[in-house]
Amino acid sequence: MRFFRAILFLIICSAVTSTVAQTKAELEARRKEIQKEIASINSILISTQEREKSLLEEVEDLQLQIKSTEKLIRVYNQEANLITQNIDENTLKIDRLRTDLEQLKNDYALMIKQSYRSKNKQNRVMFLLSSASFFQAYKRLQYMKQYANYRKQQGEEIQQKTIELQQLNEQLFAQRQNKEAILADNRKAKAKLVDKKTNLDQLIKQIKLEEKNYQNELERKQKAIAKIDQEIERLIKEAIARENAIAGSKSSTRFKLTPEAKALADNFADNKGKLPWPVVSGIVSTRFGKHRHPIVKTAMIESNGVRIDTEVNSNARAIFEGTVSQINKIPGANIAVMIRHGDYISVYNNLAEVFVEPGDKVFRNQDIGRVGINSSSGKTTLFFQLFKNLNKLNPEVWIYKM
Fold it and tell me: How far apart are CA 368 and CA 314, in angstroms?
């Protein structure tokens, strides 16, 4: 029964250790991901340092930095809590090992003392010769062998537990050092966060003093966005009508699909939530849909897609296999490339340079053009949209972890 309990205990300990190790690895991966995101944000902001920014743009930049720093602090806290838990568990294990080791040493000392009293060969021989029968002598010989083996086993167990205790102590020391390093990094991140929030509060106070002026500025930007969105919708409608005319359909709102195009569309739909980003790295600066501005509450922001700020000279890449439907110059947004995936269309707008031509077959993650500078913000920004026929889709639902 004890044997089965011991086996069960080992299985549980192994499962817990595996879960902890997995959680530790996940937290480390998450921390590195956020640190990479922060580096990307800093790189993007550095590229616009020389340009004079409005207070609203400064607020948007600070909010991005604050949001990513808060995420990093949360992960630091989770890592520190996990290490504390591991330290507590190892401390308990060390206490139990010390108790077991002390008991083993006491038992071993007593056994050695008893063995010493009858250690000479004459005593052992007399013990055997005094047997009442051959069978009893055989049993006594076996007992003596078992006793010797037990002594050896006890000595090996003491040695093993001593090594295990040393290893746990070393592990505990390393964990405490790791925790101190994480707490030090966390303190630095918190100090930066306090500074950024102080700056943000000051900027918001300034904006509040001239809220009407900033509302007008946002309305002008919204009109420009709406104009670009309307042009994209018009071009898609024309593309549907043009391609349907070739296929013998009069519809200008829905693509007529061949069996191959329908299979491609179904495959695209099956990848919802798993599609790659249209840039290697970037930050979403404008979300999809209609929402109130976070600072100037009287202003509304609406977008048919997302705007992704990325690093200078970054390339846009196709999110899925398909065919380049059309390439157009969009006033106020450089060049737009539209890729058809059955009756789905992905739109890559504000490209300064294009690497593909209409009719080209493209594959997933293929570079299709170089992202241009957003004239209003001075940042390298991709305007990205998704449609099913003329229906606007939220890219954040389709793109992995957007």
Answer: 11
Handedness of CA 229, 233, 234, 238 (dihedral sign): positive
In this structure, what token pair is assigned to residue 367?
Answer: 């570079």
Q: Model confidence over 234-285: pLDDT tens digits?
A: 999 999 999 999 888 888 899 999 999 999 999 999 999 999 999 998 999 8
Contact 330, 231 (CB under 8 A): yes
Strongest mean pLDDT among 12-21, 70-79, 99-108: 70-79
Contacts of 85 (CB under 8 A, 6+ apart): 20
Based on the number of CB atoms within 10 Å of its own CB, is 134 exposed (0-12), middle (13-18) or buried (19 or more)? exposed
Alpha carbon separation from 173 to 83, 166, 169, 179, 392 (Å, rounded): 12, 11, 6, 10, 56
Do 313 and 296 meet the contact criterion of CB atoms below 8 Å apart? no
Q: Give per-residue pLDDT as tens, 146-166.
A: 656 656 676 666 777 777 778
- Domains in the chain, start-ordered, CATH in brackets? 11-209 (1.10.287), 211-398 (2.70.70.10)
* Residue 245, amino acid: A
Distance CA 158, CA 137 (A): 32
| Dist. CA 163–CA 244, nearest whole Å | 77
Helix 55-117 and helix 211-247: axis angle, to 10°? 90
Which of 45-54, 249-258, 360-369 is predicted least confidently?
Answer: 45-54
